[in-house]
Amino acid sequence: MNIKKCLFFALSAFAASALFAEIKLPRVFSDDMVFQRQKPVKIWGTAEPGADVKVEFAGNSGSAKAGKDGKWSLFLGAMEASAEPREMRISENGKPAKTVKNILVGEVWILGGQSNMEMQYSWRNLKPDGNPLIRYFANSSPVLSETPLSETSASSGWRRAEGDDLRKFSMVGYGFAQRLARDLGIPVGLVFTARGGTAMETWIPFGAMDGSEYLKSRREEYFKSLPAWKNGGYEKAAKAHREKMAKHKAAVEKAKKEKKCPPSMSWSETVAPVPETPFFALRTPAIHWNGKVAPLAGYSARGFLWYQGESNAGDSRDLFVETFKILVDSWRDAWKDQSMPWISVELASYVHGKDWGAVREAQRAAAASVGNSYIASSADTGEDKDIHPADKGPISERLERIAMRRVYGAKDVADMSPEFSGAEFKKGGALVKFGPFGGKLEGRGEPRGFELKIGGKWVEAKPEIKGGSSVWAASPDGAAEPEGVRYLWKSWAKPDAWLYTSDGLPAFGFSKE
User: Which of 264, 435, 472, 493 is the most exposed place for a label (fewest CB within 10 A)?
Assistant: First the structure.
């Protein structure tokens, strides 16, 4: 073999080795990221099999040896918060391999749920103020997968809270971060992984479904139907959907020409089939977990913010609670920390919600079913005919209050909305008691929102605050003894929200018979 050929093969071998051996990090470890303070920080990636990997950051270091598959992971020791932009350097077999720049250290929260967590400022053409202390990991692309992925979508990455990027931030999440950064005086990182229209079961890994007969049946149904879907079923369904949409479009155009009311189609009917599932993707078990959460699982964070419930509004109370508990346990398992705080949001008011008073009660029961779990009230917010209300400010504030009190130990912060604790039915009305909440009850505007069940029918009551923690709900005639009492037990409850604490937190709705 001549010298040129030897040189060619040597260079080719070197190039192939360099390509294979390159240190690779998931996109969540990239410029502008935020590390969680006061907790060990997990770092992971791939390298040449057997390679010695070392990670250094701010005088902190960790080492690992890549496995046969090239995968490695390690922990950096816990560190204190810092707004100073610093670099993380990674070496492979003693040689510099990768540098990640402009890293801050502070508080990191994971954002999950459906469209009201996803709702961006751009949806209402709003732009909030920037904040140099806040960073946002945008993981918005819908990624579905039959199996857990190791990487987020190509469009995902960390964004600074500045410029046009702000318009694409979660309104609830960023409002929370603004308040938290202000009150703690340190950087805040938000890791977004939500998608509109999704049900809880699509965010639960297949392996966690054994504790529920319902979830096990959904899992079995999925895998039983998948082979036929992959073997021509998807193509057939996709063609039928295209034809249906074309027919609908033609019908709409025809109606407009004839100046008639065009035919309508529900939003779910417009959703096209996808190769990953023979079922409605937003309710298919596990596929959103696999595509959007699995790649992030273990990223060191303080806790989770969860805004979801609309897509499980048809579930029974028991099923809602069961599914929620499995969801929370599975996410905490994936982060290997069963003590991570979980803060939820109840559904805001909406005219077209179906029995949302009961759904909110199921959400509160679900939140109470697991430890270190809390829920923010929101029935006094919302827009009558828009399921995506813009008044997210009060919700962000209440989430941050809960975090400050329950997670960061700020004892002077009031965070508890009054919850029903009991009722005494007497001639002329019902005495409704509320559990410990701090402060005293106050009414806003004309007394309203309470109803009594008299003679099998619900009628408007006349509420009056008694003693700072109870409400006397009087019957209209002042004489009848009621069989039940309720407050804000309706989907569109905002106009009737009357009862608050002296610290400005609204009472949760309830129904007692």
Answer: 264
